[in-house]
Amino acid sequence: MSIFSKENLGGMISSKGFKQQDCAAIVYMFRYLDEKMKCVTFEHVEDFTIDFEDEKRLFAQVKVNTIDMKFLKNMIEDYYRPGELNLFIGSGLDDKVRNLLMKKRKYEESKTLLRHQEAETDFTEECKKYGLVLEEINEIKVDAFDSFNCVSIAKNEINEWADKHCIFVDSQRILEELIAKISLDLRPYGGVMSKEDIIECICRHKKSKIVSLNDGSSFDESKKNIIKELERLMKKMHREYDLLNVVKFEIEADCYLEALNSISGLYEAYHTEYKNVYVWLLNMNGQHAMCCEVIETDDVIEGIVALEYIKALYGMERYSEVIKVAKGFSENYDVMLYLGRSYMRIGQKHEAVTVFEMCVKEYPRKAEAYRELSEIYQFVSDKSMEYINQAIKIEPQNASSYLQKGKLKRFKERYEDAVRCYEKYMELSGDYQNEFVLRELAISLFYLGNQEFSIYCSRWIDRFINHQKMNELLQGEKIAICDIGCNVTTFMELEIENDMIKLSVNGADILKLHRQEYSTGCIGTYVSPYNYFLFSAELEMMRKIGEEVDIDDAESAIEDASVPALFKVFSDNETYNKTIEALLELDVLHINHKNEGCVEYIIDDKDIEVKLIKKKNSLDGIVNVGGYIVDIYIPNVGEGYQEFMRKYDSKSAYDEAVLLLVSPVEVTQITFMKNNICKIER
Question: What domain range is 624 assigned to?
Fold first, then answer.
């Protein structure tokens, strides 16, 4: 075997190996997150390295091999670092290595016990048997998980960490974001992810554990079936009623890991009774390999278990096996869907169409098959629109149907209809940052001549660069993007010049912005330090000349000093500074006041335009400062927006509003007149 083979390189040239490496890194960064971890480095020396605050380091190697004794000895010879933490991860462990590690664990656990000498002797002899050095084995960790189960292991590790800290998170989103960052930005260039970066990622996807319980109409079919199964068990298994009720509550609240942990003991004690719920929860937690392992112990596979088996096989991309198993349960609608999708995955389009058309014939009031057929026929037949309209008629609150319809409308240059479909998708799904949707909205609004184009375009560019391996664009490099519609072809060109992104559409310069300029913000009122100083000085003067100033007067003064405010928050100083430099280069800002940590500029009416586009749950702000676009996305509108509008509609000492650009260390305030704000309600 070549030293540069796929096996010896741990998958460096295979997607399977990459997935294993990335998930392994995520597993261990969460295991050590609470142990004074500083950062994780990728592909600098080892596959990944964890640095700690006490200057210790963990060096990790990840291989696609099953680790046997020979391979372990080679790993130690090639990668062992005396006095450091050494971690070797493979896709599996053979029996000899497992036995060695078991004796090592017994030896470590027995150090405070009377039987320590016996365990030490046993462990020492095991090392001698295979020519291993005791001190070296003491300083290494060996672990195993392959590409089939590494994703579910990583998700579970995230959930366990969150559970320990009494928080509820979207582990899938966290995992996806971390893997994207590692695979696209860090691993190719030997990058570093700090502990703070990880915590920020967790915070972005933190959820409330208190979830309003919905009625059954909002559950998908499988969830409703499991709820019914639990209710049946609660009537039958009286002694386990309380625990089963907890499981039911956790499933209703989408706390699937907690529900799996709660039911595991019952399954171990009463395999048959609780298998339906157990395998369903394994799939919901991404543990597809374990689900298959549990189910394959049965001689007969049927009912809920059969469906979960098919789901697990599909989740592991074993499409040929899905087809083989599903053919025996073709009377089940969900099974037919997985059968059709599996045919599509292996390129058998005709067979997929046959299955989905059978679905709509036998189950005309179910929407999924209509959506599948719409996607198959999209851009080639009018049947596509007929199918998606039928899906929307059946399920008017399903977001994915509007996404599909938006694609079809935009392709046909029905831009207004496309915009409505995509906005409906975002409203129903809560997914306001989908790269594809942002691009589609940008193109549609461009051809409509709508200035909101720049909002969606800037956000799309941000995601395009970060998610499409574009982070190392060279100065002056151009990227051409061609988008083909039914009758109109759109040519876009991205160019980096002095760290500024320029976008041209069909040969015309359209937009410029700094890289990673996109960020979220908030809305409310703000008391300018300068205005507050003037009001405070006036009150102090009144006191000095003997005039009474009561608390109500003071509060009134502060209220008068507040103005409607838009906040754009930058996560780093570098991006903030570049934005300020770009604005100052326009020569439209005039300094008014400088205070410690805050600089106030004023701007002429002709040089600024502010648009607020209010959606159902969010707000888009686009501030045009002398031709430079400041984009602000506010994900939640509430009291802050109400306060903003109250001050906007009221008369005050100054008819002003402010844009605040906030960095971790300072604030830039741009003051302008309220009449420059245009409000659009959606």
Answer: 521-681
